[in-house]
Design a protein that fits this description.
Distance between the termini: 23 Å
Structural class: alpha/beta
Shape: globular
Strand order of the largest sheet: 7-6-5-4-3-2-1-8
Number of domains: 1
CATH superfamily: Alanine racemase
Strand content: 15-25%
CATH topology: TIM Barrel
């Protein structure tokens, strides 16, 4: 299938999952995970109706952005972010999903203040407690949300997670339910400078399960672009 056909297939799956959960499909944003796809393929996806692109690597984002790859779509950053690369993203992407520490929040705030803007971010939660993954531990999340009040040049818009690798989408259910509960509970607390608008979770193998648990942003790569080649 072509990229355009894949996008329509994924959109149809999103619609079915939303309707099964009693939700409006229009409230769920499809983000194409464009890692390791060149500018031409990204442009093809945007032309076929992909509303948002998510990149994992800063250097790759910069190269494709210079080629106009994302024109006509939102641009998000969804990968692990080092503090020394924040300056390349602030003011370029509409949303940084993967903010995993107060120190990273501080640097985003500093770079945004230099540009006179407010940068939207999500806090990443390590829902599986994996040592190999970044993110706030669930019980540390309130500290990150409280810290947001000290950073006027950023705005927390919600939460994001990458669950442990599982055999099928249903096996990710406990991790998605945990994030949904954190999203709801912390949304009730009304932290300063925190707006629980976006719940970013779910990828090609499990986004329907994520939607059933309240995700309104799903990050889909393989189901749109096909398997990546790491050779």
């Amino acid at each position: 299938m072509s990229i355009a056909e894949n996008i329509q297939s994924v959109k149809a799956r999103i619609a079915r999952a939303a309707e099964a959960a009693g939700r409006d499909p229009s409230e769920i944003l499809l983000i194409g995970a464009t890692k390791m796809n060149d500018a031409a393929r990204v442009k093809e996806a945007v032309a076929a109706g992909l509303p948002a692109c998510g990149e994992n690597r800063v250097q790759e984002l910069m190269g494709k952005n210079a080629q106009g790859a994302y024109e006509g779509a939102q641009l998000h950053f969804i990968g692990t972010l080092q503090r020394n690369k924040v300056k390349y993203l602030v003011g370029t992407v509409s949303l940084i999903h993967s903010v995993d520490s107060v120190e990273l929040m501080r640097e985003i705030d500093r770079q945004a203040a230099k540009r006179g803007i407010v940068q939207d971010i999500l806090l990443e939660v390590n829902s599986g407690g994996e040592a190999s993954k970044s993110g706030f531990a669930p019980d540390e999340l309130p500290l990150g949300l409280e810290a947001a009040a000290s950073f006027p040049s950023l705005r927390v818009r919600g939460l994001m997670t990458v669950p442990p690798i599982v055999e099928n989408g249903e096996a990710a259910l406990p991790y998605f339910r945990l994030l949904q509960q954190l999203f709801v509970d912390n949304g009730r607390k009304k932290y300063d400078n925190v707006h629980m608008d976006f719940l970013s979770m779910g990828m090609s193998g499990d986004f329907e399960t994520a939607i059933a648990c309240g995700a309104n942003m799903v990050r889909v790569g393989t189901a749109i672009f096909g398997p990546r080649s790491y050779t």
